[in-house]
Each structure stands twice: as C-alpha cells, then as structure tokens.
C-alpha cells in the first residue's frame, strides 16, 4: 500500500506529525510547523478539518460541557472546537506549501462537508479520528473516495472496528490502516497495550500502526518493534506557543529525536533472514573447526587430544569430530594443521 509516494512495505515507518490545534490560531505557526516537520524527517503533516458547528452544537446543556478529568474540564465543547479548529480558508495555502517543500499532507475530516472540501486538494489519504469511528456514514463516505483510510480505534469495541473495516471493504476500499490508540490526553503508559498492534493486523487483515498520546517517545519507538507501519504523534513547534493540545505534543527537538530513534529501530528490527551474508561468511573464520592438536604419524589413532575443535574456522566442521575419533591416520599430520579428514 502507498500513501502518496511512500510504500509501506518497502519504505519503513510512515511518521505523521499531527498539527491539530498547535497553530494556536496563527497561519504562520502552521506554515512554520510544516517546514519544521519536513526538516526533522516526518513523512507527513496532518490537519484536522472541522468547524465548531460541523462537530457539535452550541449548547450550554450539561451534555455539552467537558468533564471527567481532561485537560479541558469546565469548557463547553463548542468553545473548545471554536478555539482549536484550523480555518478552512488556510487549507489551500497549507496544502500548496507542504507540496512545494516536499512533505506529504492530508487531514482528518469530521463530516461529509469537510470531505467534499478536502477533495479539491487531492489528499494522499484520509484519517478517521478515534471519536468518529462510530460515525459509520462518515466512514462510508470517506472510503468511497478510494484513498487510503487510516482509522484510530481509541474508543471502539471490537465489533465497531469490524464494522468500520467492513464498511470500507463494501465500498471497494481495501487500503485500510488501523491505529492502536488510547484516547486519553495524555495517555498513561500502562494503558498503551502495544501488543494490540500486531493483533489488529492479524485479526482484521489490515496494516496496523499507532496513534500516540503518551508523553515521550518510548511508546512509539516500541510500537515499531511490534510492527507498527504508521506512527502518529502530536507536534508543536514550541510549547510556548500554547493551545489546546500543547501539553501532550512533542516540540521540534523531541520529535526529531523520536524520528531518529524510529529509523534506528527499523535497522535493528530488520527482517527474517537465515541466508549467509558476506558479513556472516567473514565472521565464520572466528568460529570453531577441527585442527590437529599434536603431531600425528601415519597409522596413529585420532583421539580427543590430537584432534580438537578450536578457533579459527578454516578446518572441518566440528559436527564430524565424533565420527573421526577412533579412526587411524592415513598420512602424517603436523601440529596446528587444518584437519580435513
């Protein structure tokens, strides 16, 4: 599967810098963030496309007030989203700039009007946020566009995940990536449950990855060792910018260190390979093999004392040692001579 020009099978881990609200209402912050994401090695900068009116209702009803121990307790949903949204009139410039400097860009739409709006920019993929996984009509509409669809599973039951996957496939869209996600901000490490990353891939026959809300880089780096092909992390130029998501976002230095660590881990994980590489062949000279440990005259019996398995590895394979012991020499052998039978 490709996201833009990135091949998930061949090119490693696709790393998404999630801008979210981290522009804090200033387009220059958004543009600078795109440039920074490119510079520190992210593959993509991701936006969120909604307005307060497309995502909730302007109501003071208790149902629309935030509580439950979040960073935003006491705020009205409508006010939070009004503060955090990315103005739609910025999108054209942001998409154009990202493409000009060579970093991928797409967005999370939160309703059908956002999808229709984003289509004009020919995005390389769409992302369904965790809290929208139960919006089956939105998933169906996004899947119908035929682009790779990345779905966070933070609040979903296993049946809802299956429903989302089935909806995509029924639309003829099999380019599905499920992200393990813990929908807490920030998320406790003990709730990350990274073992679900390979299980998502196996259970639903999809590509899997990790959308991370923990603090630090331990979780996303570990996720790569478990097979995550996509990593998403909130990114902010500098936490002094402030904003709704600043507290659980990585700044430029932190994100750059995470990217480097992930690229190093990719090299470490490697692939299943039992072949004899040139390095292995070279190193085998330090392995054990059979050597003559004492001078041996023709007719003498080979023993544990005069034929030994020692380093280096230029002689006969040690597996033949037992077969040799007890036989008679058919010629003279000198001390430290490679034994070849």
UniProtKB/TrEMBL annotation:
What is this enzyme's class at the first EC digit? transferase
Keywords of this entry: Transferase
Query: Which residues does UniProt call coiled coil?
Result: none
Identify the residues that the record assigns to the AFP-like domain, covering every copy: 289-341
Q: Which InterPro entries match?
A: AFP_Neu5c_C_sf, Aldolase_TIM, PseI-like, PseI/NeuA/B-like_N, Pseudaminic_synth_PseI, SAF, SAF_AFP_Neu5Ac, SAF_PseI/NeuA/NeuB
Q: Kindly list the GO molecular function terms attached to this UniProt entry.
A: N-acylneuraminate-9-phosphate synthase activity
Keyword Transferase among record annotations: yes
BP terms from Gene Ontology: carbohydrate biosynthetic process
For this protein, the Enzyme Commission number is 2.5.1.97
Pfam families tied to this protein? NeuB, SAF
Among NCBIfam families, the record links this protein to:
PseI
The protein here is known as Pseudaminic acid synthase
What lineage does UniProt assign to this protein's organism?
Answer: Bacteria, Pseudomonadati, Campylobacterota, Epsilonproteobacteria, Campylobacterales
């Amino acid at each position: 599967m490709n996201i833009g020009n990135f091949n998930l099978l061949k090119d490693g881990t696709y790393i998404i810098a999630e801008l979210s609200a981290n522009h804090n209402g200033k387009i220059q912050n958004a543009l600078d963030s795109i440039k920074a994401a490119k510079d520190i090695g992210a593959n993509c900068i991701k936006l969120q496309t909604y307005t307060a009116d497309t995502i909730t209702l302007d109501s003071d009803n208790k149902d629309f007030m935030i509580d439950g121990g979040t960073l935003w307790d006491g705020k009205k949903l409508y006010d939070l989203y009004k503060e955090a949204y990315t103005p739609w009139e910025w999108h054209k410039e942001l998409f154009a700039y990202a493409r000009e400097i060579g970093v991928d860009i797409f967005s999370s739409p939160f309703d059908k009007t956002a999808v229709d709006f984003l289509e004009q920019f020919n995005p390389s993929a769409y992302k369904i946020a965790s809290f929208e996984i139960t919006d089956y009509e939105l998933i169906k509409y996004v899947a119908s566009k035929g682009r790779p669809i990345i779905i966070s599973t933070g609040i979903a039951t296993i049946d809802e995940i299956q429903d989302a996957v089935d909806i995509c496939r029924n639309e003829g869209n099999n380019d599905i990536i499920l992200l393990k996600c813990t929908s807490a901000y920030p998320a406790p490490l003990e709730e990350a449950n990274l073992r679900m990353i390979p299980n998502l891939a196996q259970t639903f026959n999809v590509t899997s990855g990790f959308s991370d809300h923990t603090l630090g880089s331990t979780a996303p780096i570990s996720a790569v060792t478990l097979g995550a092909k996509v990593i998403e992390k909130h990114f902010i130029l500098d936490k002094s910018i402030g904003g709704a998501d600043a507290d659980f976002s990585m700044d430029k230095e932190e994100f750059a260190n995470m990217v480097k660590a992930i690229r190093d881990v990719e090299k470490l994980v490697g692939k299943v390979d039992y072949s004899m590489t040139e390095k292995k062949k070279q190193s085998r000279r330090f392995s054990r093999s059979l050597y003559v440990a004492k001078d041996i005259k023709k007719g003498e019996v080979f023993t544990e004392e005069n034929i030994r398995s020692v380093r280096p590895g230029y002689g006969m394979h040690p597996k033949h040692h037992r077969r040799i012991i007890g036989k008679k020499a058919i010629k003279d052998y000198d001390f430290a001579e490679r034994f070849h039978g």
